Amino acid sequence: MSNKESSPVINNLMEEEVLKLFSWNKSELCQWEGFWSNHSIIKAAMDLKATFKSDPNDVLLASSMKTGSTWLKAICVCIMQGNKVEEEDLLVKDNPHFHVPTIESMKFYTKALAHDLYTMPSPRLFHTHLPYRVLPDSIKNSDNCKIIYITRNPKDTLISMWHFFNYNHKRLENPSPLEEAVESFCNGVHLYGPFFEHVLEYWEESKKRPQKILFLKYENLKMDPKKELKKIALFLGKPFRNEEDLEIVLNKCSMERLKSLEVNKSESVLFGIQNSSLFRKGIIGDWKNHMTPEMEEQLDKITSLKLQGSDLQL
């Protein structure tokens, strides 16, 4: 799934397909099992569902788009790696998305991974944007394979997606207006949408099986990172030995450090997508700088409607 052709023609086609994927263009989307994506992602999801066999030590990170995936990947890489000398720091060598591949998008990676999904040594750490309903049964039915899910306030999620899509398309076309993005997000017709159903599926499963699914909120990770990192490490079976070990991981994975690393300034993990575009402000409440009161009201109404009766607050 991750081997690459060296032909410039192949690479250009890959870049074009990825840029089409990361857009608000509804004509590029189709629906399968109630969620929206493009043909390549859906085919990969179908193949995974049919062939993937989980291992008891597997750890799957899951998220909707632009909810903190890159940060969570970095944190889990550091926790799983343990404290080693700086020369062996994996985050210096490659972007977190290289070390924790998104399983349905591995064909779009710019360079071959050390292992494909089926030969990756245990414990396997990988990621998906796929909704819970279409995960392979071997993942869902396993009591030992663990899932960490991260989500975010829907208004900040939307603004982050809007910036991300526009950033990667600015060389090719005019930016999509925010009004169009709000409408697509509220209708659920967007990449890996609908957002609320995506979140609620993992939320409900995490309540049924808390030992299997750890449900995180980006806001909690920002406001009390030490508490959340301890929670993640304990869930992974690698609790911090002391406060110093916790501080090391916290510093290695800080947004400021990740942004400053050369690999995240000048390289690319996905065709057509610069690593630098994966890091923007990373703050809470940036939606207030972009949304009109009417947009805010529209998002608040759909959020209240979708989450009604779920005891989940976003």
Description:
This protein has 314 residues and is an alpha/beta fold. It has helices at residues 8-21, 39-51, 69-81, 90-93, 96-99, 137-141, 154-169, 178-187, 195-208, 218-223, 225-235, 243-252, 255-260, 263-266, 293-307, and strands at 30-32, 35-37, 59-63, 125-128, 146-151, 213-217. Strand 1 and strand 2 (35-37) form a beta hairpin. It is globular, with a radius of gyration of 19 Å. Mean pLDDT is 87; it is low at 1-5.
Would you kindly provide a brief summary of this structure?
The chain is α/β, with parallel strands linked by helices and 314 residues long.
Please state how the strands of the largest beta sheet are arranged side by side: 4-3-5-6
List the total number of helices.
Answer: 15
The termini sit apart by 35 Å
If you compute it from the alpha carbons, what radius of gyration comes out, rounded to the nearest whole angstrom? 19 Å
How much helical structure, as a percent, in the residues?
40-55%
Q: What order do the SSEs take from the amino end to the carboxyl end, as H and E?
A: HEEHEHHHEHEHHHEHHHHHH
Beta percentage is 5-15%
Number of extended strands: 6
What overall form do the CA principal axes indicate? Answer: globular
Low-confidence spans: pLDDT under 50, at least 5 residues?
A: 1-5
Q: Give the biggest sheet.
A: 4 strands, parallel
Mean pLDDT: 87
- Helix-and-strand structural type: alpha/beta
